[in-house]
Amino acid sequence: MDRWRVHKFGGSSVADAVCMERVARILEEDPNPRLGVVLSACRGITDALLNVVAAAERQDDGVDRRIDEIRKRHHVIAETLLSGDPRAQFLTSFEQDLRDIASILHTVRLIRAASQTVRDLIAGYGEIWSTRLFSAYLRARGKRPGRVEWLDAREIVSVEWGPLGPAVRWDVSEANIAKAVPRDQPVTLIITGFIARDARGLQTTLGRNGSDFSGSIFGALLDAGEIVIWTDVDGVLSADPRLVPDAKVIDSLSYNEAMELAYFGAKVIHPQTMAPAVLKGIPIWIRNTFAPEKLGTLICANPTSQLAVKGITSIDRCALVNLEGAGMIGVPGTAHRLFGALRDHGISVILISQGSSEHSICFAIPESEATRAEAVVREAFDSELRQGQIQSVEVTTACSILAVVGDGMAGSHGVAAKVFSALGSAAVSVRAIAQGASERNISVVIDGKHSSRALRSVHSSFYLSPHTVSIGLIGPGLVGGVLLDQMASQIERLSRDLKVDLRVRGIMSSKRMHLSNVEVPLGRWREAVSATGEPADLTRFAEHIHADHMPHAIIIDCSSSADIAARYPEWLAAGIHVVTPNKKGNSGDLELYARFQEARKQGSSHYLYEATVGAGLPIIQTLRDLRDTGDEIRRIEGILSGTLAYLFNVWDGSEPFSSIVRAAKAKGYTEPDPRDDLSGVDFARKLIILGREMGLRLELADVQLEGLVPPALKACGPEEFLERLPEFDAPMAQRLKAARERDRVLRYVGSLDAATGKASVGLVELERSHTFANINLTDNVVRFLTRRYNENPLVVQGPGAGPEVTAGGIFGDLLRVCAYLGAKL
Ligand code: ADP
Ligand code: ASP
Ligand code: MG
């Protein structure tokens, strides 16, 4: 006859009648004639029972109500699945159990304390009820070969609780099962998970989530060919799916990897589950009751998966205790005394780290033990503390431990580097580090509030999910709107090919904002923004974008508001990256500019603004590359306004200058009020941005600015301005004529000189052959004169305005930030 197969179904798999029917079908499809089926209590029942005990200890009035809820849940299942005698039998024994519980609780109430034995006894009823219900149901369906029998694990499994948890007494348990289970007959055993008996014969449990352990104990006792643990996820995932929504199913894991993941918090499997299976080399499958067609995860001795890192887990609510003192150096036995004292008080240590200088030892424990642990350590080292050989015992609460697990880490380089750079780019600081000598695990202790961000970021860095960036866009106007459209068209490709996961989670206009917890559907962002929304609130907007669980946050400011630029320091300092075409920030006062730089350093954040000068043209990046590679920038000259370039490119003197302005406005080449271009202020701002990038401490007032708006027309309305501009044509015509007489052209040019620190913007005469005299109509152009580009300057030229190219420039910056954050572009 085939070997036994053992199935274990978790609480979520047997939560109610519908679930139990699903389980019955899975078992009926298994052709193996001999099945051991271990069940948990119906979902939530163990918690509910333990809460009842706690309520009785508190003498809380809600005890009866809580018991009644438990009663109702089981009644509904019994009434749905059972009928006739089986139903009556179940209900009779169930009601008797509830009466027993009530009388135990009566005593607990009186003495206001429950012993562990009482707690174990009551907590274990959940498994008794779920298995009684299910065995009666499966038997009644009559579709399994042979008999369906109920098996009480307390009659079989004998354990001894020690410091490492429950240890199975194999000889006793084997003898018990040999007596209880028929040999070589088709049979389906429905077995209570979680509960067992100790050496004295008292009921005990295998610890929370212990039914997994029961599954593998019965696998070993029945010498099963395999153990299948059925749960509510598709297998063991690369991270807890509730924290990392894009966690992936791991095909196969070694016993050791699974053990390590379980120990460090992967709740999907109980850490002790592996031992019995390893003993007999039984493979364990983790599968989804709700999707039985999926293969699941195989845990065995020699898994096929070659991934270096299998999974990333975290344990929250830890405390870190740090013992520090020069007196520990070279003194043998300090660690022994320390951990001995903790063991004597039953405090279990999750992680230990000691520097090789032995100057300090730190260890992590559950936060609930922090106060006790501190007292134990202080007592153990009382004399050393008094004599100053140990200077301090520091306890830090609200920590989390993040563990990266995989057998393959031992043979591959750079795993640790990747972990730490991911933590660094998510601005998570590391308090302590431990690496098992097996190199199967790297664990780090971090600030608890960064736990999920750290988890996601490290998870992303191993390509288990793409780099996720939370994006907020301010100013969905002409440029911002085109940018969103450009992103919409590229987002899938970026995610597929480059593993960059850009999620626009908020869009804000001057009055309203639209926030999304997942992401704004970019194909329909206009509808989304107009359909819903709340009043604009920059603080809330930034907080939403910078959500703790998102590894990275970027705000794209497509407004031209100085008020918004004034918020950059706050955002940058908090670790939010900023990308913008808004000139108001970088050309504002120097004090603000200095704050950008400080905040950027403080928050390890990036601040990119290529599109502030020359739209999408690579001007700032070029300047940075020159500077960063050690070139010396001597002079920068350029035409940084498409409008002014156009006006002087087309004006040949045959018409007055004012007509050229009027025609340019009609073609849409100027701002609605052409004075915004003619004043040269916008141009001067761009020059300041470049100057500051060169290291010059420039303010707007320092720029020698020759504006083209006649002073008499500065204050009037735009209509009047255009009407009266011809009054001032004569002097302009005169300047053109003078230039021509010298065979030169007039151009509106800005220049920066490193030696003198001077910046000027205005009309200049140029040779006809000059680069600036020969550009396309609305082009921008910049010449860099540097030590390397001396005789023959470096020139960047091309369209320097327009929504498409400007948005392209911003998009480029956005991807550059992603690359800085570790995305492989
Ligand atoms: P059961 O009731 O079947 O015993 P549990 O709730 O004990 O189920 O365990 C399954 C749950 O474990 C999943 O729903 C999932 O939320 C959680 N979990 C945590 N970490 C992981 C992980 N790495 N892989 C899979 N599930 C995980
Ligand atoms: N019912 C027990 C618990 O909730 C055991 C288990 O489900 O594995 O801890
Ligand atoms: Mg479980």
Automatic annotation (TrEMBL):
Pfam families: AA_kinase, ACT_9, Homoserine_dh, NAD_binding_3. It comes from the Bacteria. Signal peptide: none annotated. Pathway: Amino-acid biosynthesis; L-threonine biosynthesis; L-threonine from L-aspartate: step 1/5; Amino-acid biosynthesis; L-threonine biosynthesis; L-threonine from L-aspartate: step 3/5; Amino-acid biosynthesis; L-lysine biosynthesis via DAP pathway; (S)-tetrahydrodipicolinate from L-aspartate: step 1/4; Amino-acid biosynthesis; L-methionine biosynthesis via de novo pathway; L-homoserine from L-aspartate: step 1/3. Its cofactor is a metal cation. Keywords: Amino-acid biosynthesis, ATP-binding, Kinase, Lysine biosynthesis, Metal-binding, Methionine biosynthesis, Multifunctional enzyme, NAD, NADP, Nucleotide-binding, Oxidoreductase, Sodium, Threonine biosynthesis, Transferase. Homotetramer. Bifunctional aspartate kinase and homoserine dehydrogenase that catalyzes the first and the third steps toward the synthesis of lysine, methionine and threonine from aspartate. This is Bifunctional aspartokinase/homoserine dehydrogenase.
